[in-house]
Amino acid sequence: MQSKKIKKEGRKNLILFLLSLFSCVLIVEIAIRLITSPSPYSYGTFLGHELPPLRMIPYDTPPSKTDRSAWYNNLVVDDRKITTGDLWGLYRKDNLLGSAPMENTISLNGWWQSNNLGARRRTETLKEKPEGRKRILVFGDSFTNCSRVPQEETWPHFLESENENLEVVNFGVDGYSMCQSFLRFQNTRKNIDHDLILLLFVPSLNLWRDVNVRRDLGEGGWYAKTLMPRFVLDHGELKLIRFPLGIFHPPQSRISDITDQKIKNHLKSYDRFYFKSRFEVPLILGESVIYKLIAAVYHKYKRNKIRSSLMSPDSEAAQVSKEIFLSMNKQIMSDGGKFILTFLPARKDIDKLVNKKSFRDDWNKFVTFICESGLNCIDLSEDLVNIPENQLDTGYDGTHFGPKTNRHIADYIKRHLDRSNLL
């Protein structure tokens, strides 16, 4: 009798516990739903997290992101309203590169200007080198382009203006991977004479892009959904991968189910930051915003974990990037030119190099791994860690390097070039 009473009491307590648990989960579910904000990119946004499923192409992109003449964040410099185009430049879609700078274009306040070849330069670049001067072509991403500062505050400008015997042509492009930089070099190599090709490599920002084809998957904050090219290694050789439909960035309403699946299949095969559960959710469980939030947090953790291991010589990114450098060097040498790979730490990397021995060891091992095959390399980390804190400035939106640091970078590069006798 006593045993039956205990069992009955136990079942009652279990039911009460389950009901209480269900009530708590339901309250949390309702609370999260009330706080979740609508988003053109996903189911919704909760505390900065885009909740799955993400839309393959968003329904709409805010004009502030696409209008290069728009006033950027109320930024005023010298009584001028600085625009998005002044800070980022002006770009067009490109069938090979995904995107490329518009040629012969200038931003509203003249901070950014491109020439006949799309280089960030005030004057045209002719095929023949200027008499009595050495010509350097520089390639890379936004740290080469020197985003967020005026044209005359970039390190390529300082390198040229402070060395009368040099002409420096800046082919850096915001958001580029080493793959895109290599492809842009290939498009340029036969068009203009040159003495030296300098490729600027920022490992913490460039490595992940070499195993990524849609930038917003590898790092939050990117609004463009254009699928970029990348290389994969096929039996040790570089193989270029392009999206079979070419440039694809229409409104969401024009995407068919077949096209949507093609994009997902492409990302699944070639983008190491594509997680299926970000774009597709289970039929029943996936309706819960609690599940969506847990999935979003997990995706961010998984993405960060992949990015933290990229400097390992065994990583796919390291292997692909190294082969890009070796192939680029081989082509330049066949043209009779010279190549130098320049390692640049980003601002956050400088702090890690100073304060974290493990990061400094990883950096040095990575540089050795890349350069051990006979590449001419410059490692600017030793120079930048010794710059006084008040000289490490940033661009006008708080990112990238500012004019003081860019001047130092130009000085360091020239010093290394003089030591190596490459010019």
Key features?
423 residues, Rossmann fold, two-stranded antiparallel sheet, alpha/beta, 5-stranded parallel beta sheet
Layout of secondary structure:
Blueprint: H1 2-35, E1 44-46, E2 49-51, H2 63-66, E3 71-77, E4 80-83, H3 84-88, E5 91-94, E6 98-101, E7 134-139, H4 142-145, H5 155-161, E8 166-170, H6 178-188, E9 196-201, H7 203-206, H8 215-218, E10 230-234, E11 237-241, H9 257-270, H10 276-279, H11 289-308, H12 316-334, E12 338-343, H13 347-355, H14 357-371, E13 377-379, H15 381-384, H16 403-420
Parallel strand pairs: 7-8, 7-9, 9-12, 12-13
Antiparallel strand pairs: 1-2, 3-4, 5-6, 10-11
Structure commentary:
The protein is an alpha/beta fold and 423 residues long. It is 42% helix and 14% strand. It folds into two domains: 34 residues; 358 residues, 3-Layer(aba) Sandwich (Rossmann fold). The chain has 16 helices and 13 strands. The strands form five sheets. It has a five-stranded parallel beta sheet with strand order 8-7-9-12-13. Helix 13 packs across helix 14. The chain starts with a helix and ends with a helix.
